[in-house]
Design brief:
With 75 residues, this protein is mainly α. It contains 1 helix and no strands.
Length: 75
């Protein structure tokens, strides 16, 4: 009885794994927006004007990059 039960459980695990693998392989891939498609598909159809005065953004001053260490490993 124990051997038959173990065999049935093993078959159930194998069948569920096979069903899951079939489902994963049969799924349609996500459509990627590549440069070869029309440019109009990349833009929204309901564009809204942006008022820069209503945005709370600040430009920070530019800073010089730190000098590279001589003979050391790259940062």
């Amino acid at each position: 009885m124990g051997i038959a039960g173990g065999f049935v459980l093993t078959l159930a695990v194998f069948a569920s794994g096979l069903a899951f693998a079939t489902w994963m392989l049969a799924a349609k891939p996500v459509r990627q927006a590549t440069p070869t498609i029309g440019v109009s598909e990349l833009w929204t159809k309901d564009a809204q004007p942006v008022d820069p005065q209503k945005q709370n953004l600040e430009r920070i001053p530019a800073q010089q990059a730190a000098p590279a260490k001589a003979g050391g490993e790259p940062a």
